[in-house]
Amino acid sequence: MQYFFITGTSRGIGKALAERALREENTTVVGFSRQATLQHERYRHIKIDFSDIEQLKENVTHFFPALSQADRIVLINNAGTLGEVNYIGRLEATQLQALFHINVIAPAILMNSFMKAYQNIEAEKIIINVSSGAGKYPVDGWSGYCASKAALDMWSEVAALEQNKLKEEGAATSFKIFALAPGVVDTAMQETIRQVDQRNFSTLNKFLALKRNHQLDDAAQTAEKFFYLIHHAEKWKEVLQDVRRF
Ligand SMILES: NC(=O)c1ccc[n+]([C@@H]2O[C@H](COP(=O)([O-])OP(=O)(O)OC[C@H]3O[C@@H](n4cnc5c(N)ncnc54)[C@H](OP(=O)(O)O)[C@@H]3O)[C@@H](O)[C@H]2O)c1
Question: Which tens digits make up the pLDDT trace of 159-169?
Fold first, then answer.
């Protein structure tokens, strides 16, 4: 049996990932987001707003049930938001807080609980935190988004380092951890980017051109690349990955 826990499954990359996972046999998928848009006999949806960290803390222990046997268990922290696009000094504090809750604190809490729940089970255990190229270089107007993805990258790197240490000390089982940049994918997030006021975001024209020139990746094809990583997880040593390398 395979078990997938995927956040942000109501649309975009997360929905494509859940649909791709459900094409595999003996696979159960648990999805998380505010809206539920998927229906399948092996899919269970948990409606949750990740900007509400108190609600997440109260419920998180119920998300990862005890499993007596599994071949593969995967957590994909995919839910994310671009947040308010504007220069620092003009941002609204509540939106800034929500962005870090959704993009950093929620994935961190979920990953910690997932690892607590499955640390002793002997299965292939993979965690993919969906990152972004924008976590590696600054983009004006995207301060919160860039910083949140950089935080997720470092969180993933520390977790992988810890797993390697535990393996060296003789742990029977460990987690394989990646922070994966998905490329530029044709989703609602890209639509949001194209609607931003150029005065708050000088790179707007690049994103308008990507859409105009049909250069955005398709979510289903992107999901396929995630599954290439999942199926060959041991082959990849580095934590920070980009689908454009596959
Ligand atoms: N698209 C790209 O080009 C691109 C590039 C680099 C990185 N990424 C990353 O890829 C991931 C997926 O992006 P996408 O393009 O598929 O975005 P999307 O189409 O906007 O989908 C975002 C998903 O996250 C969920 N989500 C957002 N806010 C949430 C909240 N408060 N609580 C719970 N769930 C929430 C949404 O569900 P609900 O609204 O139903 O809650 C939705 O399912 C994100 O982490 C993004 O940063 C995307």
Answer: 999 999 999 99
The Å distance, Cα 147 to ligand 1 centre, comes to 16
For the chain, list the domains and their CATH numbers.
2-184+218-245 (3.40.50.720)
Interval between CA 50 and ligand 1 midpoint (Å)? 11
Give, using CA atoms, the residue closest to atom 11 of ligand 1: 78
How many whole angstroms from 77 Cα to the centroid of ligand 1?
10
Q: Each residue of 127-174: pLDDT tens digit? A: 999 999 999 999 999 999 999 999 999 999 999 999 999 999 999 999
Residues with CB under 6 A from ligand 1: 8-14, 33-35, 48-51, 78-81, 102, 130, 132, 182, 184-185, 187-190
Nearest to 144 by CA among 88, 204, 192: 88
Query: Would you give the DSSP letter of residue 217?
Result: B
Q: What is the pTM of this model?
A: 0.98
The ligand 1 atom at the shortest distance from the C-alpha of residue 185 is: 3
Query: Which amino acid appears at position 234 of this protein?
Result: E
Is 145 catalytic? The answer is: yes
Calpha distance 187→173 (Å, rounded): 36
